[in-house]
Amino acid sequence: MAWRELGRKSIYASVSRILTSKAFRDTALSSNLLSASVGRVRGYTSNSALLGDDTLSCLKNRFLIRRFHATPELLKGRDDDVVGLQKPKKGKFKKKPAKGTPPVDAPYVPPKLQTNGKSTSEKTIEIFDGMTTVELAKRCGQSVATLQNILVNVGEKVASEFDPLGIDIAELIAMEVGVNVKRLYSYEGSTVLSRAPVVTVMGHVDHGKTSLLDALRQTSVAAKEAGGITQHLGAFVVSMSSGASITFLDTPGHAAFSAMRARGAAVTDIVVLVVAADDGVMPQTIEAMSHAKAADVPIVVAINKCDKPASDPERVKVQLAAEGLPLEEMGGDVQVVEVSAVTKKGLDKLEEALLLQAELMELKARVDGAAQAYVVEARLDRGRGPLATALVKAGTMVCGQHVVVGSEWGKIRAIRDTAGKLTNKALPAMPVEIEGLKGLPMAGDDITVVDSEERARMLSAGRKKKLEQDRLRKLNEENIAAAEKKKKKEQDRLRRLNGEEVSDSETEEEEFTRIELPIIVKADVQGTVQAVTDSLKTLNSPQVFVNVIHVGVGAICQSDLDMAQATGACIVGFNVRAPPTSLTLAAAQANIKIKLHRVIYHLLEDIGNFIVEKAPGTYETEVAGEAQVLNIFELKGRSKARGADVKIAGCRVMDGHVSRSCTMRLLRSGEVMFEGCCVSLKRETQDVETVQKGNECGLVLRDCFDFQIGDVIQCLHQVNKKPKFISSESGAVRIEC
């Protein structure tokens, strides 16, 4: 009991020292800490018994806490000399230990997109400057939160879903979602003025399109063309005698350049359809009419070569009307002008017809603000780098602007007109050549002017990513289709092995040994590369698969040679200079074929013959000759050493020849009685290998003894038939197996 009393007194003494301290009194008065007590100190019946003196008179009539805990508020106000819990002393600032690796931003994780079972890669939406996130989400088929997440990842500030977006940001979001976009521009608040018409000259090959343009602008471009035909898409500005200016686009007429004609029709205002008066309507004439109708562009017909004696313009008009072209003379709205590029007859009437059509269309364009342009052609210059021939559709293109051309970007370093002179700006309907791009764009790409280099880089990277995704998706679809086809063939084979019948529709495809012919294409301009590639792909056949593994613009270089050596490809150069002697020798040592051509006719013919040589061909059974049975001889009673009895058919060869090594077929009244091999063929008493037409012979067929006089014996042999290269008058080519 004594030790308990001693401990109690010690506790009371400690409590008294704490409660009598100045720090505790000040804290208690300011924060009223003791007003929330739940009981009194055990052992005391009144406050005065504990407080005794006047030291704690401030705590009269207040309850005391039963248990004391060290709280941050209590520890903060205590003095240093107080007995009991000590306040932590402030020490010097301690530097945090440096981490071994620098901080790394978290990688961008694309958001999970909503899918409705349909592929979004083929979906195209219209975007414009100032559209909101909500409207873009509705068109893309995604939630607003998903689009806001993409906005954050591309570095844009997200304020409200109803805030307007720039057209570049809208395109970035749409590409991230995986949809194609079509930009719409508004002319509100812009200066709109009249512009010169853009006229595309189209027609069949060798109908005088380039000669007609030469007569209009008094030049001689046609004389400089390789092979006398146009193989590029050219743009010119012609100042007419009336003082007006017209922008002309000259398109090739060969069948291989269909994509060029389609691009020309898509960007033009008026199509001049050139038809030769002595030749009439041809396949490319009908194709040019189809392109113009698809683009909803008015047509003006120019019947050329009216100075020739064999010309018949009336016949041409009847042919055009038969193709569904409403001519003015027949109650339609299509103007027809008879011209001659040689004598320059009717050129003034053609000019008048074009200006009249342009006046009826009231052609106007925006001249202020950022430019909208279209790539007519693109090429690679050895000294100036990638060059793009562009046609300005609206706005003004100025040197120093940042542009995005397809999936490439750059800063316009120089602008040149069609005469090659430097200019500071390009106005609507003005064809110019721009330089300063980082890469070579595709012909037909749109040129978009952006505010900064950063925005140009972002748009270019987004478009390249979208193109790569589309390419991989298409490749995956082809692989899946090939796997399904292979699986179906295997199932048909197993069904035949099990004795099940397979329908003719499932086995109608003949089995060929198909080989692959890899080709590398190099050309002078981007449009020609596309034309040559498309033409080579038309040469695919069941026996040979033409695989264009690489295309490029410019001369043949060492990297092309290395790729050809690694893949076993053939290098095709069109309108490019010959490679250096070192490359030619290296190609000869590596057995790599390099084919250089400047005319599309010769190129396709050469490649077509090369494909025919590479084709394995198909083996077919043909009748080499026929012999008629005139008499039958039997050899009986032969010894075992000389063999069993035999029947010999005495025949006369009626057609072709008969060979002992070939298969024989016995026909009786047109019906096949036997088919087998020949074991003996003699002429008179000598064994021979072949008997020609008109000679008599005796032959023995293995296991065949049913001969009758008048039977016909056919000699069959296997022939390897190669495919044929066929070229039409219009220039279209194909491989026929």
From TrEMBL:
Keyword Nucleotidyltransferase among record annotations: no
Any one GO molecular-function label of the UniProt entry: translation initiation factor activity
UniProt signal peptide: none
Family, per entry: Belongs to the TRAFAC class translation factor GTPase superfamily. Classic translation factor GTPase family. IF-2 subfamily.
Keyword line: GTP-binding, Hydrolase, Initiation factor, Mitochondrion, Nucleotide-binding, Protein biosynthesis, Transit peptide
GO terms classed as biological process: translational initiation
SUPFAM superfamilies registered for this protein in UniProt: Initiation factor IF2/eIF5b, domain 3 (SSF52156), P-loop containing nucleoside triphosphate hydrolases (SSF52540), Translation proteins (SSF50447)
Name listed for the protein in its UniProt record: Translation initiation factor IF-2, mitochondrial
Domain of life where this protein originates: Eukaryota
